[in-house]
Amino acid sequence: MIVPSNDNLIVKGSLNPGATEFEGDIILLLRIAEGCKAVDGKISVPVYRFENNRGNLEVLHFDESDPDIALKDNRAVIHKGKEYVSTLSHLRLARSKDGVNFTVDEKPFLVPQNESEEFGVEDARIVKIDDCYYINYTAVSKDSYGTSLIRTNDFVDKHYMGMIFCAPNKDVCIFPEKINGRYFALHRPYNHDFGKSSIWLAESPDLVHWGNHRCLIRPRANKWEDEKIGAGAPPIKTDAGWLEIYHGKTLRNGKDFYSLMVLLLDLNDPTKVIYRGDHPILMPEESYETNGFVPNVVFLNGMVIRNKEDLLLYYSACDDVTCLAECKLNELIPFIK
Fold this sequence. Notes:
By secondary structure, the protein is mainly beta. Helix content is 2%, strand content 56%. The chain has two domains: 1-157, Glycosyl hydrolase domain, family 43 (Tachylectin-2, Chain A), CATH 2.115.10; 168-337, Glycosyl hydrolase domain, family 43 (Tachylectin-2, Chain A).
């Protein structure tokens, strides 16, 4: 059982974990989504308030009969034109020796720490570069969502490096080593004027300042990813290329449907696509993948490779739960040996 971070909150979901190995353990950095305890006649939302660079959790209560209240969907509440999230997320560590049975810490690893995170911190990706672990995550606020970065050597102490992709941008995946002297990352700017949300590539000299942005792949006119796409876990280096598993969204009966797809990029030039799968490697089929907080969603933030061929995919289902799928590399891409 996952303990709430505050007596006024309840845990609504454990999802979208980043994953890595550390000192013989598999580490998951879970997004813990928390909502407010029910109060009769009230609609309650959690928010962080910041004063003197310190954040404090507050619970706002609105009367159900208030004519200025509107429920956007099960994820948002609008009061007098101001939008709030119905759940607020933080990041929490879980550890396992076997990769299956995890112990979840009782206290958060990362909570909102500035106004760019007042609506929560979400969807971590972890990448080890040399002897340091870099964790990028989605920072959510009234100004939309951006991507911030911290680093740690021990998953105890952490150093905040700032927002590296401003809003609206998410699904950032940093490559685990330099390529031709530069750092690279996949990211997903939000398209709302024309075109569709796609996976972009950027490069950096220092992991903080990113540029030379270019669109890498776009949604395709098929029944899996014709609405939008976004990067999943940080790419894994294989002999055949950089392996990336990304998500694609389509609409089924007017509702979102998310699947996982495969992409392989050139080792020396990640702008070159070597292989892109035509069909999902994973799509919502099981009951816990089709029925939940957000139905028909499978979403990947973290994967771990063992013995150079065994892939552990830590994915979430329905924005509710964290799941594990296992496969061999050569099951994903036929010509990987």
